[in-house]
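Annex B. Sample input.
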Amino acid sequence: MLDIAEELNRWVEQGRDFAVATVVAVGGSAPRQPGAALAVDSEGTAIGSVSGGCVEGAVYELCRQALEDGETVRERFGYSDDDAFAVGLTCGGIIDILVTPVPVGSPVREVCAAALAAGGRGEAAALARIAEGPADLTGRAVLVRVEGGHEGGFGGHPELDRTVAEEARAMLDAGRTGVLEIGADGRLCGEPLKVLVESSVPPPRMIVFGAIDFASALVRIGKFLGYHVTLCDARPVFATKNRFPEADAIVVEWPHRYLEAQSTAGLVDGRTVLCVLTHDAKFDVPLLELALRLPVAYVGAMGSRRTHEDRNERLRDVGVTELELARLRSPIGLDLGARSPEETALSIAAEIVANRRGGSGAALTGAHIPIHPDTSNTVIGRIGSVA
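Annex B, continued. Sample output.
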């Protein structure tokens, strides 16, 4: 439910009763991943999505029923071969949905409210809910924060809360959303419970180096993809808010100095993407020398193939190894035949998504590859404050 935390937090503040349906397991070509949620309040208002439209109507009715009878239920939806109009996923996948009523005064309300408030503020937090197990435990929740401790409880074995909190905190540290299987007595063996852990973390960072027209388009698409986008350039006449109104931050500094300062402060991580559009050796070489040694998700650099070869030789001259050079995506982007800044930004964004999700970048037509590959490392990002 943390993927719709801001909207649900408003419902909590307004004192609305609601039920929330959350994807807890998927199989095949399912359109949404664990953590995707749809919520319905007592007036029938709905927000969110669990299937992209395939089973929303049926899930909506399950939420209305949960509000009436106060019961937590788990339901499976899959493809129906017999009736094209039956409730099912026409894409051929399977999703398991956990429907939990969250009325004012219920035991789960306080925990969910704290989790939604944290998610709405962009704080790192993990909400663990029992998705499968004894009826008296299903739907109960624990909130875990980075700094330690947990709120709420499952009401089962005394070790269960502690063990789930430890496992959930490890998933939160990695920014992961997924399902734990854990014994009802808190051990990682024995008769298992299934616990959905939703991690809400600040959005990943995209740092764009080089205040050129291509950068303006890339900033826009980076924001569209949910990144916190910083534009950095050493030239104050070009790095301005007027030219890059959608950037979260604009920094006038030599690129390698800025990146070094951000790395030292611990503000780049394994989800950070670095896009080098400066196209000038005096900026590119010291920047890439540092960038290729950082544990970031993606490093791409703009330039022709001749520029790429020349830049690689300069990087070798300053000690960059072949293994480090192999991390560099250059010329940046996928082959889309792009010409304009907007098309080029789309090409770069496509490569970033493919890199993040493990895609091949090949056309799906005629390809025997999964449309929705397994994404057990789903991350739910919320707005953060890092600049």
